[in-house]
Design goal:
about 650 residues; alpha+beta; 6-stranded antiparallel β-sheet; 15 strands; about 15% strand; elongated
Length: about 650
């Protein structure tokens, strides 16, 4: 009785925590007038004070080629020496390379048509510039942890801007030329720090709340005054001769910039990310996705309730009354001495399930931190860093789950099982990433992961994850295996012929459709944020969809497992995992469809990189959904076979 009460209290506490997180998710979605995006308190600056690091340049990126390049592979104004700003582990894995620039940024100090540099550019670099402009590469700048944004024609702020543009004259491709943006009109909005409002002007402090850039192409002729011509260009763009790239010969290029400081009394430092958030996809579409998914879950829950509650209740009544008049409806009872027969390759199955549970724990913890505001977009790579670190520390969970599952399946060599658990899928993902990294290196891309970052990941893996996995496996080994409801017969029962849709491959494919269908709209937004360089901060929506995915995956695998047992097919161990994992297969297919319909990738290398990283994401998703299917089916099978009086 005491144990039952303890279990009920634990369940109630868990449900209460989930409800609290759901409320927090909704609040994080609707809190548009306050802190809509998790932020950290930014730095404040006095008038005339130099903004730390100034403008930081990152990469140039393109939707047409997932191969980033360093900004200084494009710009001719390269500082000497080049100073790289230290980044988080996740930023290095994402290929972010923040470097200082020669832009002079002093608080509230306007600059008009200041020369940045004048360089003679060789033909080789001019040809590369022209190619990058053709692929519509865009630059990533940053000031005070804010993206230097570009205001598009829809009055939305984009976090990148084009380095140039291909211009066609008179609708003739033969007259087309590439113009390079070599003048940057920068507008910086600032907000007064309220605590310093009573101080003298020279001691007041200000926050930077928005940074915009308007890139322009100006051909500075030698017989013109650069400053006056720049002024004309800023005020009257139509009268400006653009800077055409002539890659046939060396070309002298002058870079200039202007800075204008504007006070923004409405936007506080806590709301400064709202300007960038407003450029994200409309929340109405996300709500449509969530409501659509909830309707799928409700429909499936009703079906599960009707099938399992009513049908199983009748089954139990017939079985306990020893009524064998309709054996077809209680056929699952006939395999009670085989249903817990250990499967083949039990070690790989336990490693797969435990890694999936590790991913679920990592995802849940990271999403909770995100919706509660502990993860900020102002730090590049912070989300991926948290993912990686939490995954490493969740190795103890993977080890414990693997040990328990392996023991349930009557495994004996627990040390070998834990070693496989801690190395199988990390080795696979590490190997794929390492291979893709060689493609980046071959393309001379800044997206190549540094060797030191690889060593840091290996150190986390071998020094933290693997030992923790063995600790979890040790505690699992110390516990007795849970007592199964029925014994296993020494002679396997013959499995009758199955109808076509209950055979392994069709049933696995059917089982994976519904979980993916419940979340695919949100998958579209996530893929857009990855491949279209859009910001994704809607963690409240993502947490709700994550819970929907868990419920949908559990329910559909339970239903399919019940039908499988009714067909007297007792080999449910691997089937339950693969039915859930099949959602990852559909995710990979969808990524291919997304590539064909929404992306305009150029070249074999771009397609290979896209498919490689999509395959990694599909593997992670498959392990997550597969482990949900296995665990839910395991407890379902235990439950129904513990209710019968097996003879």
């Amino acid at each position: 009785m005491h144990q039952k009460n303890t279990s009920r209290i634990a369940i109630c506490m868990g449900i209460s925590f989930i409800v609290f997180l759901l409320i927090a998710s909704v609040i994080s979605i609707y809190k548009r007038d306050e802190i809509s995006v998790p932020v950290l308190i930014p730095s404040s600056w006095v008038t005339g004070g130099a903004v730390e690091h100034g403008i930081l340049v990152n990469n140039v990126i393109s939707e047409h080629k997932p191969v980033p390049y360093s900004y200084y592979d494009v710009s001719v104004c390269v500082p000497d020496p080049r100073v790289r700003v230290s980044s988080l582990l996740g930023a290095n894995l994402m290929g972010n390379r923040l470097e200082e620039s020669d832009f002079k940024i002093l608080m509230k100090n306007d600059i008009h048509c200041q020369e940045l540099c004048t360089k003679t550019v060789p033909t080789k670099k001019l040809k590369k510039l022209e190619r990058l402009i053709d692929f519509e590469y865009r630059a990533q700048w940053e000031l005070d942890s804010l993206p230097v944004g570009f205001r598009n024609t829809n009055n939305k702020i984009e976090s990148t801007f084009n380095i140039g543009k291909r211009v066609t004259e008179n609708d003739s491709s033969e007259m087309a030329y590439a113009k390079l943006y070599n003048h940057f009109k920068i507008k910086i909005s600032y907000h007064l720090k309220e605590e310093t409002s009573s101080k003298p002007e020279s001691e007041r402090e200000y926050y930077i709340v928005l940074v915009e850039v308007e890139p322009m192409s100006i051909d500075y002729q030698k017989d013109m005054n650069p400053e006056s011509y720049c002024t004309i260009a800023e005020n009257s763009k139509a009268n400006v001769i653009p800077l055409r790239i002539n890659s046939d010969n060396e070309q002298e290029i002058k870079y200039t910039y202007s800075i204008q400081w504007v006070e923004d009394k409405k936007t506080s430092h806590l709301h400064r990310w709202n300007n960038y958030y407003d450029g994200a996809p409309n929340g109405t579409t996300h709500w449509f996705s969530v409501i659509n998914s909830i309707l799928v879950v409700l429909f499936l829950s009703i079906m599960v309730g009707m099938i399992l509650t009513r049908t199983l209740k009748k089954d139990f009544s017939r079985i306990n009354a020893d009524d064998s008049s309709d054996i077809d409806e209680t056929a699952w009872k006939l395999v009670h001495q085989d249903v817990f027969r250990p499967p083949k390759r039990r070690m790989i199955l336990s490693a797969s399930v435990s890694t999936g549970i590790q991913i679920i724990a990592m995802s849940f913890f990271t999403l909770v931190c995100s919706i509660l505001g502990f993860i900020s977009p102002s730090h590049r790579g912070e989300l991926l860093t948290v993912f990686l670190v939490v995954f490493v520390w969740m190795g103890i969970v993977a080890g414990y789950v693997s040990g328990r599952v392996y023991k349930i399946m009557e495994g004996k060599n627990w040390k070998k099982n834990i070693l496989l658990t801690s190395t199988l899928y990390p080795s696979l993902l590490f190997g794929i990433t390492f291979g893709l990294n060689f493609l980046f290196i071959g393309a001379h891309s800044s997206g190549a992961i540094p060797f030191g970052t690889f060593l840091a990941c290996i150190a986390l893996w071998f020094c933290i994850s693997i030992p923790l996995c063995f600790i979890g496996g040790y505690f699992a080994q110390k516990k007795d295996a849970p007592e199964l409801p029925t014994d296993v017969n020494s002679i396997p029962k013959y499995i009758p012929d199955l109808v076509w849709y209950m055979r392994p491959i069709p049933s696995i494919l059917l089982g994976g459709i519904l979980p993916f269908g419940a979340v695919f709209i949100e998958v579209y937004f996530i893929m857009s944020s990855i491949w279209h360089q859009q910001e994704y901060y809607l963690f409240g929506f993502l947490f709700i969809v994550f819970l929907i995915l868990i419920i949908t995956c559990a329910e559909i695998t339970i239903v399919m497992c019940y039908f499988q047992l009714c067909a007297q097919d007792y080999k449910w161990w691997w089937r339950s995992f693969l039915m859930g994992a099949c959602s990852g297969f559909y995710l990979f297919l969808y990524s291919i469809i997304h590539m064909v319909t929404s992306l305009d990738l150029e070249g074999f290398l771009s397609v290979l990189l896209y498919l490689g990283y999509s395959f990694i994401i599909a593997i992670i998703f498959s392990l997550l959904t597969g482990s949900i299917g296995f665990i839910s089916c395991y407890y379902f099978v235990r439950r129904i076979y513990s209710e019968i009086r097996a003879k």
